[in-house]
Write a structure and sequence with these properties.
With 188 residues, the chain is α+β, with helices and mostly antiparallel strands. The protein is 47% helix and 11% strand. The protein has a five-stranded mixed β-sheet, covered by helices on one side. Bound molecules: FE2/S2 (inorganic) cluster. The site of FE2/S2 (inorganic) cluster has 11 residues, from α5.
Length: 188
């Protein structure tokens, strides 16, 4: 006698391999836990992770997808659609450069090219030494005083190429001082 009942495969949910360091995994799970009940939970979760880690590790994608029961492609799609989300750790300092119209009219376009050349990086990446991140923004509310930059929560107005070089030199000086302090501490 043959069994006429159709066999229906039962999908098994398999937890992704734990290739995130434990501290990052903890942040991801905690962020998911806090926001999973919201409608459209993915965006608040990604924001929460970036707020705490400074970036969103690629290895977090399978874990978020598993926890929300959505596809990895969906998480990856949202993560890469919004340039705001970083997929690499930021530098010690982040320069947010305004690319909106009013600043463009006041010379931001030339400043962009200069900044990218001086830092040896494009937008969304870090300087050659890995210490300064360059990110675009679209209006800092300082339109009449452009070109405008926001660095470490401080607003800079009417920034010229020369002024940009001074700012970067000051940031580099600070990082050099940080380095020597760190090595002095390490030598103790
Ligand atoms: S357009 Fe640059 S600050 Fe508004």
């Amino acid at each position: 006698m043959t069994d006429s009942r159709k066999r229906v495969p039962i999908p098994i949910k398999v937890a992704p391999a734990g290739d995130l360091p434990p501290d990052q995994r903890g942040v991801v799970l905690d962020s998911v836990q806090k926001h999973r009940s919201l409608e459209g939970a993915l965006l608040p979760i990604l924001h929460a992770i970036q707020e705490r880690l400074g970036w969103i590790p690629t290895a977090a994608v399978p874990l978020i997808a598993f926890e929300l029961n959505i596809s990895r492609a969906e998480v990856h799609g949202v993560l890469t659609f919004y340039h705001y989300f970083r997929q690499r750790p930021p530098g010690t300092h982040t320069i947010y450069m305004c690319r909106a119209e009013a600043c463009q009219a006041l010379g931001a376009h030339g400043l962009e090219a200069h900044a990218q050349q001086v830092l040896g990086t494009k937008f969304h990446e870090r300087s050659a030494d890995g210490r300064i991140s360059l990110e675009p923004v679209y209006c800092l509310g300082n339109c009449a005083m452009g070109p405008s930059l926001l660095i470490d929560r401080q607003l800079y107005s009417r920034v010229t190429a020369e002024r940009f070089d001074e700012i970067v030199a000051a940031l580099s000086g600070e990082t050099a001082a940080e380095r020597s302090t760190a090595s002095a501490v390490g030598a103790r």
